[in-house]
Design goal:
- It is a single chain.
- By secondary structure, this protein is mainly alpha-helical.
- Helices cover 51% and strands 6% of the residues.
- It contains 21 helices and eleven strands.
- The protein has a three-stranded antiparallel sheet with strand order 8-11-10. Strands 1-4 form a two-stranded antiparallel sheet. Strands 2-3 form a two-stranded antiparallel ribbon.
- Helix 2 packs across helix 11, helix 10 packs antiparallel against helix 11 and helix 11 crosses helix 12.
Length: 512
């Protein structure tokens, strides 16, 4: 696994204050960009690169540059259109309703030069039909109940006409891209899949299922948007530090397994989102472990019990331990420079502080030459570590907590402490992703452990049992609860007292 050099395209004016989080995980993981928004940003990149003739291909490492869609007409109609309900409530004749609504939209539509929406009258038989389409797209929107501004809301990604980047439209009508909700995490996802060992197989499925064979509902977005709109400038600057990584391959194979199922593409999307969230959260933990030279990341998962249990406490401990790994990695990454011969020589030189500052500037992009330097090199390191940890806590340090909750991996239900307690939705996704037609239940538990570090049953919890943290019965009961949960979801069939099979419902339905 090769770690790539820091890009030279960033300077002191446009780049991060220092290059630490980015050097470990890439530019950038961001907690306010949910797994759903990460998927949407990925699809926006994929569409742009497909139009450029290079989908899921990275010609040169970290050279991604693309021109995304804006689709501001579509966004105005779906999310910046309060007039439609007002006009409907007035119960006007169809022609009058169109006339009143078109005049109001011409006054309030934002971010577009041509505010003439009269083309819509030719595409809908009545104003009521038009309003019904708007209502459908509003109801199917991603995180549609959020209080985000209208230009940062997204329709469901039914196809290429429904994809666009996050934008900021100022009161004067100026449009710029915004990195708050499309913070480059989707670009990192794109680069990870590009660098996976199954990129060629995945490329064909993604293009054929999402871009060249969109859902019929995408035609509604095309009718509303009219001609596609594109950003004026290319988007560049994404950086992923690893040229290859086991997480990239696992993520891509998870996607491949889901996309290979005989289900509509839009039904596969929630499963893709959940597995993206799980794998990127694990990527953060795995990279932290690599910096720390630590043990394999483990997720002790409690299958929720009506009473407090030993497994619940161990799961909460596991969650807290993992939650602290990224911050520990940041501190370790900063201080490891002091072990290098170059640093030792600098400290012993006639001007140790200035020479140490030069080393830190080359390694991390800090400090600025105009900064007041502390009196000794150790204080300089302490200052950088403090700033790095403070910056890390703002966003990247919240990824594990935020994303684990978002995908249904963690919970505080029936407990004061957060612990790993997967929801039914996540359990179904794990079955859909990991099970072919069917898999013996004990093999399913082993697979979850080997692939994701998930510990549920006693066979995977031997370390905890051997050191006396739990009894075998504690984890056996935990596995039994999972078996009951899967059976209640229609995902498990018991053939005898000693034989139970986990079944993929889509594979089962196809076989039938």
């Amino acid at each position: 696994m090769e770690i790539l050099a820091r890009p030279t395209s960033f300077d002191d004016r446009t780049g991060p204050d220092f290059w630490i989080d980015e050097a470990i995980w890439g530019h950038r993981l961001y907690d306010e960009q949910t797994p759903w928004l990460t998927f949407l940003e990925f699809m926006t990149v994929l569409l742009a690169e497909h139009r450029a003739g290079r989908p899921l291909r990275e010609e040169t490492l970290n050279s991604l540059s693309y021109r995304p869609q804006l689709q501001l007409r579509l966004r105005n109609l779906v999310f910046n259109n309060p007039h439609i309900m007002t006009v409907l409530a007035e119960d006007r004749a169809d022609e009058t309703a169109w006339t009143i609504w078109l005049a109001k939209m011409a006054e309030t539509a934002g971010g577009i030069d041509d505010k003439n929406f009269s083309y819509l009258r030719e595409r809908f038989e009545s104003f009521q039909d038009f309003a019904a389409v708007i209502g459908f797209l509003q109801g199917s929107a991603i995180e549609g109940s959020s209080n985000k501004r209208w230009s940062s809301k997204f329709v469901f990604p039914f196809g290429p006409n429904s994809l666009y980047e996050d934008a900021n439209v100022n009161p004067r009508g100026g449009v710029s891209n915004d990195r708050r909700f499309f913070a480059r995490t989707g670009e990192l996802l794109y680069l990870m899949l590009c660098r996976s060992s199954v990129a060629d197989q995945l490329r064909g499925l993604l293009v054929s299922r999402f871009l060249e064979n969109p859902a019929p509902y995408d035609s509604l977005a095309r009718a509303l948007q009219n001609e596609p709109q594109f950003s004026k400038a290319e988007r560049a600057g994404a950086y992923l530090p690893c040229s290859a990584h086991p997480v990239f391959d696992r993520l891509a194979k998870d996607w491949l397994a889901i996309l290979s199922l005989a289900i509509p593409a839009y039904d596969a999307i929630p499963h893709l989102v959940a597995m993206t969230g799980l794998n990127l959260a694990l990527y953060q933990l795995e990279r932290a472990r690599e910096v720390l030279d630590g043990e394999q990341v483990q997720l002790v998962c409690e299958i929720v019990s009506p009473r407090k249990s030993v497994v619940r406490d161990l799961s909460a401990d596991s969650y807290q331990r993992n939650n602290g790994l990224p911050q520990q990695a940041v501190e370790r990454f900063v201080r490891q420079v002091t072990e290098q011969e170059e640093w030792i020589s600098a400290v012993a030189s006639d001007d140790p502080v200035l020479n140490a500052a030069d080393i830190l500037k080359g390694a991390y992009g800090w400090p600025d030459t105009d900064d007041d330097l502390p009196p000794d090199p150790n204080a300089l390191i302490d200052q950088l570590a403090g700033r790095a940890v403070s910056r890390h806590k703002q966003h990247i340090g919240k990824i594990h907590m935020t994303w684990a909750r978002a995908i249904g991996l963690s919970s505080r239900r029936s407990s004061r402490r957060v612990r790993y307690a997967p929801t039914d939705r996540l359990l179904k996704t794990l079955v859909v992703c990991c099970v072919g037609k069917r898999l013996e239940f004990r093999d399913f538990l082993a697979l979850l452990h080997d692939r994701y570090g998930i510990i549920i049953g006693d066979a995977q919890a031997r370390t905890f049992i051997a050191r006396g943290d739990a009894d075998q019965e504690d984890f056996s009961d935990n596995a039994r609860r999972l078996e009951e949960r899967l059976a209640s979801l229609g995902l498990l069939k018991r053939l005898s007292d000693s034989c139970a099979y986990v079944e993929n419902p889509f594979e089962r339905d196809q076989a039938a």
